[in-house]
Give the backbone structure.
Amino acid sequence: MDILGIGNILLDIFCFSEEDTALSLGLHPGSSVHVSPERLDELLLAVKNPVHVSGGAAPNALKAASALGFSCGVIGCTGMEDRDTDRWARILDADLAAYGVERTIEERSIATGRCLIVHMPGGVVSVACAPGAAPTIRPEQIEADITAKTRMVFLDGRLLMNPVISDRLITLCKGFSLPLVIDIGSAETAGKHGARIPEFLTRTDCIILMNEDEAFPLAAALEHTVPGDRGMQSAEELIDTVFSFYTGKIQNYPYIIRKEGPNGATAWHRGKKIHRDSIEKKYCIDMTAAGDIFAGAFMAALLKNLPLAEALDFANTAARHALDVPGSRIDWNDFADLKSELNQTHSPGQ
């Protein structure tokens, strides 16, 4: 296997409405909230013509990498009802299978995790998420024999809240000399659990990915670990100071990557800071999975040994394609072209 992903497995449910549907559902326009599975069931009763797509950082990234020709598998949890796999899990599993992603799943006696994403006029989006079974992964699910057979491991950063899982991954990735890619996942995770990141950066071959709004909370969480008197610094200066400190050595790892949407991406690696621009799209259907698609394409590019600047360019291009579809329902034709481009750039033996 090329990439093993561990993370929250969710079913994304999209509603595209010509009305202010969020208000009729009791949601605040532009909000993102957690709700109970029962409350989400109530919301879904009022949704017309829903679009179902497997989601979560790990599944989204792995679907992209799989579409680019890499063998991928995900470890996670889904739900049950009446002692059988619930209908949401069956939809999710079929979608992952269609993209060639292997599944190592444990079932729980609660509902499969789901996110309702409501698109309304004017680009307003409201999200209601019921994590359900998704975050109940046990460290024992990450088996050594499965891990030993992969080339790269991807971790959904939302699992950083579980120190036992973090410790197990550090042990396995260090023991098998595997690159470990961590996508921070949210500004809250960066602020609350960022203090764990130095252990990954110093003990494993680590790649940290984050969205633009997660960079400062992460840098602030790590500031006390960086020696020296810096005086007053702007947010960007602090980010650069902290990330440069952890990537200053001339060695293959670590990488720290900031995904910046239409502005491209910035990387800190081997003592250098590299920025690559992207091309802003005038119109997009949905942005939910763009960052995750970037992650999957970036991992694919690294496994093909592309230079860092080219890997960032390739990931930016893949992420733009994700704006044309709901979630990670990526277009096979688009990714066939990207796959061909990747194979022409570097052969599998390089």
